[in-house]
Amino acid sequence: MSPLLEIRDLHVSVDHHEILKGIDLKVNAGEVHSIMGPNGSGKSTLAQVLARRDTYEVTSGEVLFNGKDLLAMKPEEAAWEGVFMAFQYPVEIPGISNVYFLRSALNAMRKARGLDEMSAMDFLPMYREKLNLLEMDDKLMNRSVNEGFSGGEKKRNEILQMAVLEPSLAILDETDSGLDIDALRIVAKGVNAMRSAERAMVVVTHYQRLLTYIVPDYVHVLMDGRIVRSGGPELALELEETGYGSIEASTSAA
Amino acid sequence: MSTNVNTIRDLAEREYKWGFISDIESESVPKGLNEDMVRLISAKKREPEFMLEWRLKAYRHWASLEKAQAEPKWANIKYAPIDYQDIVYYSAPKQKPTLESLESLDPELLRTYQKLGIPLEEQKLLANVAVDAVFDSVSVVTTFKEKLREAGVIFCSFSEAVQQHPELVQKYLGSVVPYTDNFFAALNAAVFTDGSFVYVPKGVRCPMELSTYFRINAAETGQFERTLIVAEDGAYVSYLEGCTAPIRDRHQLHAAVVELVALDDAQIKYSTVQNWYPGDKEGKGGIYNFVTKRGKCQGVNSKISWTQVETGSAITWKYPSCILRGDNSVGEFYSVALTNNHQQADTGTKMIHIGKNTKSTIVTKGISAGHGQNTYRGQVKIMKGATGARNYTQCDSLLIGDQCGAHTFPYIEVRNSTARMEHEASTSKIGEDQMFYLRQRGIKAEDAISMIVNGFCKRVFRELPMEFAVEAQKLLSVSLEGSVG
Q1: Neighboring chain B residues of A101 at a CB cutoff of 8 Å
Q2: B292 vs chain A: nearest CA distance in angstroms?
């Protein structure tokens, strides 16, 4: 079986400064991979390149998604193919209600995939169900997208969008940052409910904390633009104990 | 941002879809303006003596201003001098302009209005919208007249009002915007050829939305219409105007005047969706829109609300204003102005507080794209006797791309220390962050821009009658044509 996502020797620069220095990664459907690393290691860059943000320059390498050239896609095309990214810093869209935005997004996806648009009648019950899963207040839904939301509400809103849009690849970019323990649990519950044999997840995080709740199948350590170690969930625990410094020392010694 | 730039460029390829020219034989007078021309226009309209006298006084005033080169120059707009002798001041579809039924209307004219999506045939009318249509200079048909007459509401062309209700015209014409008001108001008073007239008697709530569509068709013609709306004690009326023009290489002048009078407890809601031809991508052609709109809240507890969506015209120069004379009267101004390509807008309002406890609200949303220049200019004046006056002003500007400009000029003058004034202003840019966020959720770039802009304008759209709010949103999306790079 060919992997859902395959990254081959990916090099990425910003303003002629190389951030990713040759990434190789295979992610199969049904798997949860965690990318861990210290600040400035290139984690978020990797997430954003996969979501097709065009402020990054891919200098070499390739990325296949479902066997297609992901790097040739615009952000919306990648989304239609099934790539979703939960943002580290979700943006505010004044004047557009959360519920209107979400239905527009879903229908834009459905239209691109040749499906009929979903009516408000069909949309609302599905949406309420997901809302309950994330223990979100109904009132937030008629407010403008992310406007006046607390940090925790914004992150839950990201997972709500993921739950409604049902992507085949979900990239979580530091979803745990700025969350208290209760919010973290709720977010993790939402993410775990989404785990399935058809869906893969890439969880980008600095801390092991999130991985207690979302237990990954694989952990990769990203340092200075390269994956320096890969392993099972136990690698995250090891990092928690010893810190990134020990890995740095061991890799430079090797 | 490169993808955004491309998207905006793609949108620019879209054409102005109201730009067709109708093949209608018209009766025009030679170009140029002098006293004889004013007499000719008045004679063609078989006007009573008082009208001719008024026009001549206006003409003489305008001529003195023109001689003194007193065309207003304070606005933040640039254009080549207008040759007022190179304009046709009267053009009418060649047929009897007063019509008894739609059957007698030129079928080509009917087709024109159908293309514009204006429901002239009564059976096809949107429920509860009465329409007056002004083609070039004259009003061609007013629908639903009978139903309105039953309610006691007069809604007709200005020409008809002059014939049928001269006493009302004489009483109110120029009472809010005198011909001496400004250069363009003087010009309008001298040569205006038609427009709409609305009179809502005491205690009557107008049973439907009233609407006028203005269309410039003939080349090298100016359109000078004049609208007068009077709401007597306790009356209510909601009025909407829409405007389009064909694509022409040369600039065309539009200098209109609108006067509103609200007596005790009366309310007038005036909405505009202005989509005159804006010119092409290089700024060639387009309408010069110099308009004077003013409402007088003459009575106690009266209210006048202006809502405008300005997406067209090469130049927009307009300041729908309220004179709050009656105690407890309320003035409102809600505006969306979009400038794209080489469009320029200098628009805003004046709120003049004279009566006690008068209240005004100003909410403006300026959107600049391409090389567009968008200026908010607003005056809030609290007179000595206006104890307890209040004003709230909010001016927001949104920039798309880096070649455009947004400017804000608020003038605040307070002569009564009990006044309460609030002013908020913001300028933002459609960010790469917002665009990426929406596109990551599967929304195409051009739809993402529309969504952000519509969200930005929401507060103003809420003030429009429902069906026109939907139109305005669509119009805004189409008008976001332009190039950044």
Answers
A1: 441, 451
A2: 31
Mean pLDDT of chain B: 83
Q: At B58, give phi and psi (nearest 5°).
A: -65, -45
Domain that holds residue A51: 5-253
Chain A residue with minimal CA distance to B439? A76
Domain count, chain A: 1
Of all residues in chain A, what percent are helix, strand and coil, respectively (each to 5)?
Answer: 40, 30, 30
Note whether A85 contacts B: Cβ–Cβ < 8 A: yes
A91: which chain B residues are within 8 Å (Cβ-Cβ)? Answer: 431, 433-434, 437
Q: Is residue B55 part of a domain?
A: yes
Domain assignment present for B323: yes
B485 found inside a domain: no
Enclosing domain of residue B439? 2-479
Residue A217: partners with Cβ closer than 8 Å, 6 or more residues away: A31, A32, A33, A232, A233
| Average pLDDT, integer, range B2-13 | 41
In-domain check, residue B261 = yes
Helix (H) or strand (E) holding A45: helix A43-50
Q: How far apart are CA B82 and CA A221, in angstroms?
A: 70
Distance CA A144, CA A218 (A): 37
Q: How many domains does chain B have?
A: 1
Whether the per-residue pLDDT at B314 is higher than 90: the answer is no
What mean pLDDT comes out for the span A185-210? 92
CATH label of the domain that carries residue A123: 3.40.50.300
Q: State which amino acid sits at residue B276.
A: W
Mean pLDDT, range B366-376, rounded to an integer? 90
Q: Is the pLDDT of residue B28 over 90?
A: no
Cα gap B378→B393, rounded to integer Å = 9
- The torsion angles phi and psi of B60, rounded to 5 degrees, stand at -65, -40
Strands in A37-122 per DSSP E: 57-65, 68-69, 83-86, 93-97
